[in-house]
Design goal:
- With about 550 residues, the chain is of the alpha/beta class.
- The protein has 2 domains: about 260 residues, FAD/NAD(P)-binding domain; about 180 residues, Cholesterol Oxidase, domain 2 (2-Layer Sandwich), CATH 3.30.410.40.
- It has 15 helices and 25 strands.
- Strands 1, 2, 11, 12, 13, 14 and 25 form a 7-stranded mixed sheet that branches.
- A hairpin with a 2-residue loop joins strand 12 and strand 13.
- Helix 12 packs across helix 14.
- The longest helix has 19 residues.
- The N and C termini lie far apart (about 45 Å).
Length: about 550
């Protein structure tokens, strides 16, 4: 294999141009004196489906994703669960369902209570606001002028209004802002889009600064290992066009590969469980038992309802003339089903009496399919997906080869505790209760999944085993903390290593109660401030 080492010594190297990595590259290169290299394994974001909101339905299952699969999941009947993760500029923010959700303030206060100074809600809120360009305008909780466009749903379907009305009929309050002071209730999502176009992290943070002379963006660059001089990181080796290249750093490297790729690269580089590394012939730089451990994800399970009238997107897509009109409407007005995200109506609720804050989240969409990414049903249908907010189950990510092109082993370990099973069983019951409230029930001809004959705990657990899957929020495999299994400290510096940080969802001590793209961007924003402060000359 050809090898190449550049003479350039970079001040900062960012590995992974995803939600956090694009934010880091933007903020770190704002000072023209800092030379910044951004490495991304995937291509540039030129595929037009990336920028059309509903395109996530295509891109999630394309070459723009890493296309991971879990190991057979014991609680899911031995099924492997497909885990799309973005492999393109923008990372998962370029292929996700566009939902803008921060999580509950209590999530971050709990991080701080665990000993992570500077990570409470009041600490992270300024970074959420700095990142945001809120369509509704500025407020105490929202920002304007930031790179990330945040907007209301452009087209609301009658059946989505019915879901929200039904949720209110069973006692959930209306909530106009799930990123406001209180998450509980029902209403409509906001999305990372503007004027019918997706605003990924690459669009928001990279597109405006592509001309910066001190920022170099390398795509098709697969990081293979970090290089060290003792305990100090000195560079990163990567594959590009069949050539092994090494980029050297004089300042710091920050990993932003996400909850799968960041622990994988650490392990390939000799930072991880010594027994795993030794078995693969990888020299141990530092024995770190926690690398790849504590994997958390939100498990979702869908309820599908057949409607008694043709008002779902299924009906539009399955009709040639309507399908043509969808394209025309989007081309002329940037409206219609092509602007749809992975959630329209939403609800956050408490299904267990001991829960002090919402423990489940609903994503309601005005279409249905046999599984995510499949063709839509030939009849009018809608989907109500419920996911658990704070799972107790913990999994792991472990390399099985010293070859960086080999996918690591992913064990999600879903539903391994009684608590997790209880929450989702009761979540399915709440979904049914909403569907049977008058405002929604008048549209429904049948509950296709799980089916009205599924009543008992065991019946609903059978549905979970057969149909449960990821809602694409893996976190915590390089967890922040100060215990023996923690990987980074509260400055996001890797324990026992100089010049190396991690900034992505892998550092979350516990998964947030909601979608993870906005928190990942916040983490990138905050890490950039930390790195710039450390690099600033002392006076």
């Amino acid at each position: 294999m050809d090898q190449h080492q550049s003479d350039t010594v970079w001040d900062f190297i960012v590995v992974g141009a995803g939600s956090a990595g694009c934010a880091l590259a933007n903020r770190l290169s704002a000072d023209p004196r800092q030379r910044v290299l951004l490495l991304e394994a995937g291509p540039r974001d030129r595929n037009p489906w990336i920028h059309i909101p509903v395109g996530y339905y295509k891109t999630m299952y394309s070459s723009l994703s890493w296309g991971y699969d879990t190991e057979p999941e014991a609680a899911l009947g031995g099924r492997r669960v497909h885990w799309p993760r973005g492999k393109v500029l923008g990372g998962s923010s370029a292929i996700n369902g566009l939902v803008y959700m921060r999580g509950q303030p209590e999530d971050y206060d709990q991080w701080r209570q665990l000993g992570n100074v500077g990570w409470g809600w009041e600490d992270v809120l300024p970074y959420f606001k700095r990142a945001e360009d809120q369509e509704r305008g500025a407020s105490d909780l929202h920002g304007v002028g930031g790179p990330l466009k945040v907007s209301d749903i452009r087209d609301r379907r009658e059946i989505c209004d019915a879901f929200v009305a039904a949720a209110q009929e069973i006692g959930l309050p209306y909530n106009d802002d799930f990123n406001g002071p209180n998450q509980e209730g029902t209403g409509f999502f906001q999305t990372t889009s503007r004027d019918g176009r997706r605003c990924s992290s690459a669009v928001g943070y990279l597109k405006p600064i592509r001309g910066r002379a001190n920022l170099k963006i390398e795509t098709g660059a697969l990081a293979t290992r970090l290089t060290f001089d003792g305990a100090r990181v000195t560079g990163v080796t990567y594959l590009q066009d069949g050539i092994e290249k090494t980029a050297r750093v004089g300042g710091e490297i920050v990993l932003s590969g996400g909850a799968i790729n960041s622990p994988q690269l650490l392990q390939l580089s000799g930072l991880g469980p010594a027994d795993v590394l030794g078995a693969l012939g990888i020299p141990v730089v530092r024995d770190m038992a926690g690398v790849g451990q504590d994997l958390q994800d939100h498990l979702q399970v869908r309820s599908i309802y057949k409607l008694n009238r043709a008002i779902s997107v299924n009906d539009d897509v399955n009709n040639l003339f309507r399908r043509v009109w969808i394209g025309i409407d989007y081309a002329l007005r940037r409206r219609g089903p092509l602007t749809f995200s992975a959630g329209h109506a939403c609800a956050f609720a408490r299904v267990l009496p001991e829960s002090e804050t919402p423990d489940v989240q609903f994503h309601f969409i005005p279409f249905s399919a046999e599984k995510p990414g499949a063709g839509l049903h030939p009849w009018p249908g809608v989907t109500s997906s419920v996911c658990q907010m704070r799972p107790e189950s913990r999994g792991e990510v472990t390399i099985t080869s010293a070859d960086p092109r080999t996918h690591p082993k992913i064990v999600a370990n879903y539903l391994s505790t009684e608590y997790d099973r209880r929450v989702l069983i009761e979540g399915l019951r709440l979904s049914r209760k909403i569907s049977q409230a008058p405002a929604f029930a008048r549209y429904v001809s049948d509950e296709v999944e799980p089916g009205l004959d599924k009543v008992s705990d065991e019946d609903l657990m059978d549905h979970l085993r057969a149909k449960g899957g990821t809602i694409f929020h893996p976190t915590s495999t390089c967890r922040m903390g100060h215990d023996d299994r923690a990987v980074v400290d509260d400055q996001l510096r890797v324990h026992g290593v100089e010049g190396l940080r991690i900034a992505d969802c892998s550092i979350m001590p516990r998964v947030v109660s909601g979608n993870t793209s906005a928190p990942a961007i916040m983490i990138g924003e905050k890490c950039a401030d930390m790195m710039l402060a450390a690099a600033a000359p002392s006076h």
